[in-house]
Amino acid sequence: MPIGLYIHIPFCETKCSYCDFNTYSGIENLLPKYIEAICTEIKLWGHIISSEKINTIFLGGGTPSYIPPESLGEIFQTINEEMDTTQCTEITIESNPNDLADIKKLEYFREIGINRISIGIQSFNDNHLKKMSRRHSAIEGINAIKNAESAGFTNINIDLMFGLPNQTKSEWLKTLEIIPTLPIQHVSIYCLTVEENTPLFHQINSGIVANPDQDLAAEMYEITSDFMKQHNFRHYEISNWAKNNMLCTHNLTYWKNQQFIGIGPGAHSSLFQYRFSNIESPKRYIQKLKLNENFKKTHIQSENIKEILHSIPTTENFEKQDSKTMISDTLIMGLRLDNGININEIEKKFNIKIEKIFPGKINQLVSQNLILINNNQIKLSEKGKLLGNEVFLNFL
């Protein structure tokens, strides 16, 4: 079974006003012990999945590009020594534009095996970047993309956000218009979600910042879909577009409900029928692995997975999924893709009829023009893409 590998790097120079991820600024003093702990967990999992192959690696955060390159080198050396990466075709690093001014750093990323870079641009509008507490300017974002190409990257993704406070359609279109002028093969475009207890949430509640207009955001999404289609980007997932079929293989692991392991504090994993995650605190994560550096070699199998998971010092929140939960996850994640999902394949895989678990739901969604069915293939309609969350609620 091929396995996707996620490595969490929670360090940030500063934290953005909208961010509620498990990330931290001002904890650089933990870095040496953190890298040691990450490598210890990699070794632990290397023993457990010794006969399995890693097919994708994704360094996320946080800001992996913020930490010293030699720390990344240490992580990759450990991965290559402890895990079978012979069939690994995609290795991604998330980055901030102002960490990519040095082409030598980017070249080093390539030397240690990273072949895909994801750059957190978010906007090409300086005013909106400042409001979101981003540390880079629009020109620094453009230069980061050009530097990545100069360093030899041929698979460059950028992240963008729309539906920002006081953002106009014309401002958003100007950001989109920069995409075709740059060497970008993949774009992840998200509507801003105002998460509770973030600085942005409190700014909106206190009236300092305007509440984003959701109707306007829906119009921006339609503008995005039309624009990206005109410029030959395939809209292969609700929030993702790719040129030349350069889809994100790692994220397809999630969307196809396949198996993956998350390394680092707060990282999530899915193996066999189990979902579980690591403790969130970097300090506790380091302490737990320091106390448990010696572990026996045990190969994971479906019959002994529960015992093994409970023996890993950092894991918690175990959930064994029943058939309904697994089908629910497969439907919800698969419907995010442009090809959708095949009813026959799902029913054969789980040995149960979808109609038995969700009676009447498929026909109801078809009648509402939210999904389309053709040759047992279900996918979202254009209306369904706009109202995706409403569709997904039917399968919970």
Helix and strand arrangement:
Layout: E1 3-9, E2 11-12, E3 24-25, H1 31-48, E4 54-61, H2 69-82, E5 90-95, H3 103-111, E6 116-122, H4 126-131, H5 138-150, E7 156-162, H6 169-178, E8 186-191, H7 199-205, H8 214-230, E9 234-237, E10 240-242, H9 249-255, E11 260-263, E12 268-271, E13 274-278, H10 282-291, H11 305-311, E14 315-320, H12 323-334, E15 341-342, H13 343-350, H14 354-357, H15 361-367, E16 371-374, E17 377-380, H16 382-386, H17 388-392
Helix pairs in contact: 1-2, 1-10, 6-8
Describe this protein's structure.
By secondary structure, the chain is of the alpha/beta class. It folds into two domains: 3-254, Aldolase class I (TIM Barrel), CATH 3.20.20.70; 323-395, Arc Repressor Mutant, subunit A, CATH 1.10.10.920. 40% of the residues lie in helices and 20% in strands. The protein has helices spanning 31-48, 69-82, 103-111, 126-131, 138-150, 169-178, 199-205, 214-230, 249-255, 282-291, 305-311, 323-334, 343-350, 354-357, 361-367, 382-386, 388-392, and strands spanning 3-9, 11-12, 24-25, 54-61, 90-95, 116-122, 156-162, 186-191, 234-237, 240-242, 260-263, 268-271, 274-278, 315-320, 341-342, 371-374, 377-380. A nine-stranded mixed β-sheet has the order 9-10-8-7-6-5-4-1-11, sandwiched between helices. Strands 12-13-14 form a three-stranded antiparallel β-sheet, with helices on one face. Helix 6 (169-178) links the parallel strand 7 (156-162) and strand 8. Helix 1 (31-48) packs across helix 10. It starts with a strand and ends with a helix. The model has no long low-confidence stretch (mean pLDDT 94).
